[in-house]
Amino acid sequence: MGGDLVAPEQASGDDVVLAWEGADLVAVRLPHLSDSLDHILAELARRHGMPLSELDRKTKQSVVRALEQRGAFSVRHGVETVAGALGVSRFTIYNYLNRENATKSAKSAGNPGRAGGAE
Q: 100 near 68, Cβ under 8 Å?
């Protein structure tokens, strides 16, 4: 996910200071969430062994589900960033998200059948 180590006395409000037996040893400066999204996308590409844009539709949908669970779409320009990495439009990302939410709603309402229509 990235991050930098800084001296405890250089820690700012968002840094995490790590202490051992009462003494501050180091501070961890975490990247901004938007930088983290780039790291997450790169890790997913490594895990799949190919650029995310080359994945099939079903795998892209599972990537979008995983990213939603990790909060990727709460980041400013998150949808655009993910769409670019997957080689699809923002509209397609929203379709994947809406389809997933419709499926969840149908299952919670006791209708385990397919939700949504054609893509």
A: yes
- Digit-coded pLDDT (tens) for 38-64: 888 999 999 999 999 999 999 999 999
Hey, what amino acid is at 32?
A: H
With b for 16 or more beta-carbon neighbours within 10 A and e for fewer, the 26-35 pattern comes to ebeeeeeeee
Selection from 85, 106, 83, 105 nearest residue 95 by Cα: 83
Q: pLDDT tens, 90-103? A: 999 999 999 877 77
Measuring CA to CA, how many Å separate 100 from each of 5, 74, 88, 109, 115? 38, 17, 17, 14, 9
- Whose CA is closest to 29, among 48, 10, 47? 10
